Amino acid sequence: MRQPVEELIEKYKDTVFRAALSVSRNPEDAEDVVQDTFIQYMNSPRQFESEDHIKAWLIHVAINKSRNVINSFWNRKRVKFDDYLENTNFREPEDRRLVEAVFSLPEKQRIVIHLYYYEEYSVREIAETLHISEGTVKSRLARGRNELRSILKEEWDDDE
Questions:
Q1: Cβ proximity of 128 and 115 under 8 Å
Q2: Helices vs strands, H then E, count in the chain
Q3: What is the CATH number that goes with domain 1-88?
Q4: pTM for the whole thing?
Q5: CATH of domain 91-160
Q6: Are the CB atoms for 91 and 39 separated by under 8 Å?
Q7: Which candidate, 55, 92, 58, 70, places its Cα nearest to that of 21?
Q8: Hey, how many other C-beta atoms are within 10 angstroms of the C-beta on 153?
């Protein structure tokens, strides 16, 4: 199965952007990764089983491309994630703190937290997308949740 790239861009550009941003922590890099991901789809002769398979493939490619970006020389000379947060409007002040807490997690935990809570993937879907076992996904989710609980509890304790 193949779908026109224009349809996929319309449907999944935000999803791919958020996945790339969760790894790269830089909106400009994430935008570049989105473009590169869809270009790779266009150039790939691969056939897909379903639209869900295409979406999972796009996210997987975006995560890998984001990892390549953060390991590159140019990454050391870029605008920091904090600058992006300063220019983002959040509905509630707590939303900003939650985003900061999620982005402070180690990459492996951050990715599964993002896919589970923001993209609403199941544990099985995350395991398939990242090519890891379901047990590993559950373990990373548990560690990420515990770390978030710890980070946010410190914030709440400081506010009292």
A1: no
A2: 8, 0
A3: 1.10.1740
A4: 0.69
A5: 1.10.10.10
A6: no
A7: 70
A8: 10
